[in-house]
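Quick one: structure tokens for this chain, please?
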Amino acid sequence: MAFSQYRTQRPPHLRYAEIFTRNVEARKRFVITSKDGAHLIGVPSFSSTQDPTSKDPSFVITTASSEYEIPFSELAHAEELVAHSGLHGGPAVPEPCQAPVSLREKHQKFKILDAPGQLNDDLGSSHGKRGNAVLFLDIDKFKALNTKHTERAIDRSVLPQFQQLIADTITPHGFAYAEGGDEVIVLLLNVGTGTAIAFAEELRLLISAQEFTVEEQVEKLTVSIGLAHSSNHEKTKLADAANTAKARSKERDRDCITIAHSDGFIDIERGTLKVVTSGSSKQDNNNPEAPS
């Protein structure tokens, strides 16, 4: 379903635009998801042209540049938006929050990324013709960084910055889960393998270009990334496959991407997205061993 067919061509109301801008700046926004995986980020209100109690009412979704009038029946999370945004009997524009993202359990340590237990539920309910991809990220040489600055200092500085960068990058393409302090799983929704590789490379470059501040010192990070796509793996095995591919990235030279294919690995050349080599997988998916 293309959201463009529901664009009304009306310019956003000033009040909605102001609230949308404030929500985006505060990273508090609605993620509007269609049943086939398309996304919009905007502020929802009930359509003024329809009765909210009608058989199939509509939301007016105001984004930074356009308005859309979208029937509830086309949305994957319409019920949650209604139940948790105060639209029933509430204000025309709800209080800033995220839906359905605001309903998600966050990892307890930093409360930035999602708890990893939600991954299987997300995979089970995901929609889209192009499939899904899982990325497994691991900070390179993290033990040495902890030794240099102490674990407490890294927890106060680098890890929250690292996780926030990923959180800002993933919206609205999917979800990110804190598997551990230095490990993150990313779920990309309704993407082909090529798009997933391009996203992983962009994320790798963003992280390597970022300056992370630790007690008035600047540190640079790199990540090793493993990627698995649902066209080659069962959904329930995507995270394990991506983890194994990540271990191969560690073995190769770190700071690179490896794809877990159905019959082995595909190594991606750093900076070019070209295939370097492909080989058979010999590691145990449940216990991959690799350098830090």
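The radius of gyration is 21 Å.
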